[in-house]
Structure formats: structure tokens, C-alpha cells
Design a protein that fits this description.
Layout: H1 3-32, H2 39-53, H3 62-70, H4 72-82, H5 87-126
């Protein structure tokens, strides 16, 4: 294996370990503080704080995040396969389930967009 390839693989592993570490810290915080939030959400909050404060640059985790985003479908296949067991439920209440999924997806996208916009405006005001 050549040196550049080894360096690339090493960086990828470090970035994935960092992302996993933020997730684990978020899970521990949520458990210790008895927050009604999933640990992944707390971990994403920690990542947002690290980015907004300048402790961490988004480009630092770009390789690992890109890999996770590219393989995101693999994380959802088990959930999709379990839907096959609930065909009767989907036939009777499928439209309600799709309505909830669609509206919650739109709300998450809206909340994300508003948060990113607020952070960008805040940084623009506070940068020299």
C-alpha cells in the first residue's frame, strides 16, 4: 500500500472515530443528565457547538462524514425490511403514516435551515 493511500485511510479512520466519539459523549450526557433526547441528537448538538465556536472546522471531518452520507441507505435497510411484516397496517393507515413522515421531515428540514441561518448570521456579526 502506498504512503498516500495509507494516509487517506488513516485520516478516514480518525474522522470516523471522532464522529463516533461525539455520538458516545452525547449518549452519556443524555443518560447522566436524564435528558429526554436521544444521544445522537445531543452529539450533533456538541458537533454544532464545536463548529460554531471554531474549535473544529467542518473540513476536518469531511472525509468521514462523506463516507457515512454515501452509505446512509445501509442504515435504513433494516427499518425498511421490517415494514414487510406490517402490510395490513400500511394498507389501513399508510396514508397517515406517510403524512406524519412527510410533515416531520419538512419540520426537521425547516428547523435545520433556520438554525444554520441563525448561526451564519451570528458568526457574521461576531467576526472581526
Amino acid at each position: 500500500m502506498n504512503r498516500a493511500r495509507f494516509r487517506h485511510l488513516f485520516r478516514l479512520c480518525l474522522e470516523l472515530i471522532a464522529l463516533l466519539g461525539l455520538y458516545a459523549i452525547g449518549c452519556q450526557l443524555a443518560t447522566w443528565l436524564h435528558w429526554p433526547l436521544p444521544g445522537g441528537v445531543v452529539g450533533l448538538g456538541l458537533l454544532l457547538v464545536a463548529f460554531a465556536s471554531g474549535w473544529l472546522k467542518p473540513a476536518t471531518l469531511q472525509l468521514g462524514a462523506g463516507l457515512l452520507m454515501a452509505e446512509m441507505l445501509l442504515f435504513f435497510i433494516p427499518a425498511l425490511m421490517s415494514l414487510l411484516d406490517y402490510g395490513a397496517l400500511l394498507r389501513s393507515d399508510g396514508w397517515r403514516i406517510l403524512l406524519v413522515i412527510g410533515s416531520s421531515t419538512l419540520l426537521v428540514m425547516l428547523a435545520t435551515a433556520l438554525t444554520v441561518e441563525a448561526v451564519c448570521r451570528w458568526r457574521a456579526r461576531h467576526e472581526p
